[in-house]
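Protocol step 6 of 9: fold each sequence in the batch and record its structure tokens directly after the sequence line. For illustration, a two-sequence batch is reproduced in full.

Sequence one:
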Amino acid sequence: MKAHWLVPVDGSAPSLRAVEYVVRQAPSATVTPTISLVNVQAALPSDITRFVSKKNVDDYHRESGEAALAQACANLEAAGIAYSKHILVGEASQAVADYAREHACTLIVMGSRGLGTVAGILLGSVTTRVVHLSELPVVVIK
């Protein structure tokens, strides 16, 4: 049986605690899991992107995503755990659920809260929406 754990990371303390959970649990797993770190960047509004080149927008998303993933990558590297990292653009909860389905993930490990906006607080957290959108088990780390 293949194990593939998806860890959404936005650079927040709860998302880094999810990475620490993976650092503690992965070595003792029955089957060594494949670890995928994912950062989801919000798409920029069209009133910005129509005046900025696609390359500049792509560079912005990549740089922001790399910054958000940096500490998580460092933590996994320090523990000697192999991983892949992916930067996606879109609505966070849908992008996480879609990635998990499309890449045959077996588990999602994520923080209970992230760096969401005030609108996110009013509409419900990304974590709550991932739990509802995904058919996979979701481990939520406080």
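Sequence two, same batch, same settings:
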Amino acid sequence: MEAWPPCPYRKEGRCGAEEDRPVTPEVCRACPIPEALAHPRACLYLVPFRLEGQARFACRFTFTWAREPAPTDWRRLCPCVYWFPRAPEEAWIRDLRELQDRYRRVLLGLEPRWKPPAPPKDRPQGRRRWPWSRG
């Protein structure tokens, strides 16, 4: 039996970075996600996921405005000045699975990349009231 490389997303031969799809040891060995997570500059903002069999890396901070929102090479995101140390375990990172799913939907064109602006709130008519004014 072939040895599997260490990966925090693989459980019982299924890849959690790609919506729990089955993977083979060859596919798992070729995946750059474990290497990216082991790097000393792996950041809390780094969101690794797989889309249609290809590893992608997004940044929580730059995803909505970056020219390329999810490159295939993690090295393009890691020398960032907005660096926060990654949690020791992937399960400690809040909302990581939801972000992976959202980024997949955005890249597939099923969801907009940024939220539309909120409609303006109706302001009450009349003069403006200051906290120190009477009446």
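Proceed to step 7 once all outputs are recorded. Observation for sequence two: The chain has three helices and five strands.
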